[in-house]
Amino acid sequence: KRPYNQLLSSILSPDGTKMEQGVFFVYIGLDRCFAGVAWWQPGPELLQEMRKAIVTKPAAFRALVATLKKNRLELDTEGCLKRAPRGFEDVTEADLAQAVRNRHFVVRQDIDPATIHGPALADQLVDFTSRARPLLDWGRAIQGKAG
Q1: Which pLDDT score, from 0 to 100, does residue 102 have?
Q2: What is the pTM of this model?
Q3: How do residues 31-54 score in pLDDT, each as one tens digit?
Q4: Beta bridge partners of 6
Q5: Is 91 exposed, middle or buried (0-12, 13-18, 19+ CB in 10 A)?
Q6: CA 5 to chain centre
Q7: CA–CA distance, 62 with 75 (Å, rounded to integer)
Q8: For residue 17, what are the CA distances in angstroms to 7, 102, 107?
Q9: Spatial CB neighbours of 10, under 8 Å, sequence gap ≥ 6
């Protein structure tokens, strides 16, 4: 018999709830294992502010992307819009146009299932979150909760 739940997941957020934005999460499942840092489905106001920040402060956004790349991470484009959202149709620079179509801002790192029972997993997760922190800092600055 298969177990009812075929995965284990955990979220760490600033306020301890699943509703807060800017979270660290771990997903351990039969299909895959990964860790992530995410602004997942931010509310309309926050998403609009994030998109505005991309367009009005492109150097800061590109610095974020470059830092993530240097840290061996990249923003996930899964689930992005096919067209520019209303108000952003005039964004022509390819990287910015792609970014404003995001509905989430997420970085992920796969976890080798063979390591989920070992003591090194904690160190891997701490390393990942340290490398992903610039994404959290970017979103918190937009929210007005830098720190």
Answers
A1: 96
A2: 0.87
A3: 899 999 999 999 999 999 999 999
A4: none
A5: buried
A6: 25
A7: 11
A8: 19, 23, 20
A9: 25, 26
